[in-house]
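Lay summary. Proteins are chains of building blocks that fold into shapes, and those shapes determine what they do. In this project we predict the shape from the chain. Here is one chain we studied, written as its sequence of building blocks.
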Amino acid sequence: MAIVGLMILFLLVMPGVSFGQHNENGGFSEVSECAGINANHEGSWNEYKAKDFSRGYLAMGQAWGDFDNDGWVDLYVTGGLTKSVLYQNQGDGTFDVSEFSASVGLHEVWTGGAVWADYDNDGWIDLYVLANGSNVLFHNEGGNGFRDVTSVAGVGSLGKSSGAAWGDYNGDSFLDLYVTNWSCFPDCDPVSHELASDNLYRNNGNGTFTEVSYLLDREMLQGAGFATSFADIDEDGDLDIYVVNDKLKNPIGNVLWRNDGAGCKGWCWTNASRQTKSNILKHGMGLAVGDYDNDLDLDLYFSDMVESMVLLENQGGSFRDVADVAGVASATGSTTGWGTAFFDFNNDGWLDIFLATTEFKKVYTIPVGMLFPYPNFLFENLGDGTFVDSSPIDWRQNPEASLGTAYADYDNDGYVDMVIGNWNESYVLYRNLGLSGTDNHWITIKLAGSGNVNRDAVGSRVYVHLDDGSTLMQEVKIGSSLGAGNDTALHFGLGERAIMRVEIVWPDGARQTHHNVTSNQKWLVTYMSDTGRD
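And here is the predicted shape, written in a compact code that computers can read:
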């Protein structure tokens, strides 16, 4: 067994609250007001005002991360045309506006998405905010404030940035950055190659980045990009990149960049989209990456406008769209899907799907807008390749125009919660109370890298082996959904099963195996350089 550094975090339960109770909303309770979440969002247009899509900026940001290292995830939300807000988790179910919120408020910036990442491996997560204009990178000053380092770092990216993902593609222990820019090049603004294209930045390890987009095919960088994720799609131990594109103006389809290692004037990337049948041509919006069928590889779910959503089942060397069979297509002719995520809301051991939506409306044949309120979807995974709509009643009765979402167990009670961004209105916090009649177990595993491994441990995989012979797998990622930052802690629902052992495969190939791991706890595992390798 490998020698590792371990810290067991106590399960923190808020006093005076009864968990496991069922309500008519499927276990979710809207707690924004009592939790202190009241940030506003101001969009560039609304459902009642006709506007050329190419001139708007459809992006919202919600990002979970423990910026002060107190064991409770904090929340940053972008304001669009108004100020953004940083909320500090108080550990009692409530949030206060952080004393540092004004310094990252960006009230003069047209903000979109946001993600947390420790780009310099100093143990404090930093904040990257996307914008229509220059993106902004804030360095975390040891929990004592933030400093704008955009100019020094060189990651401004002047396009209409909708999504960003962090991952160490070259294995040097520092997180690199991919930014998607929404473009309708060459028909409309932005009209230059530089502003229209996605950007790939290599982390130099000294606080600066070098743009290396030239390593990729320029023509395949000029789609209307909405979402992206670093993930080891082909199971070869390094991180690939998947990009979701809108087909509105420059219909190039989605793109899978396969990481083929060193060479090729710096690094080898192969466009494997057609080969893997992942080059789907849709109005692609949000992206979720996860192993929904528990076959130990990563599948892809992405949202679309008016047409069906897409669930790409990973079949080893290629993908197959199974959305219709699985029951997650949601094709109504007017549904516009946006942010989306895989997470296990009922702790039964199967990843469920959340989908944020709006409605696309027409008067006769004339489009009048696509940001009308529409019920969001919560698809419950039945464990047989199919899902059932388990959306809370409240969502159906009181629909909103939702674009963004991000998940985290903000109250450390063992149930995954989520925040939803409603366009031109506000952010809504949903607390997961659990379902009655179940006694499902869980474990949340937080990884911390050091030495050869980036501090956020992005690219690590965790395998949880259970007493019925089944195995669950998740990979640490930063990015995906739509301008969102989910908590990087890996939450595993276990059902009524017990853990036999936990295996961790770190990005450098090091492996750790742990026995006698108890369930119903939050567990921090720290990488050590003497960990065994295959």
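What the prediction tells us: The two ends are 13 Å apart (CA to CA).
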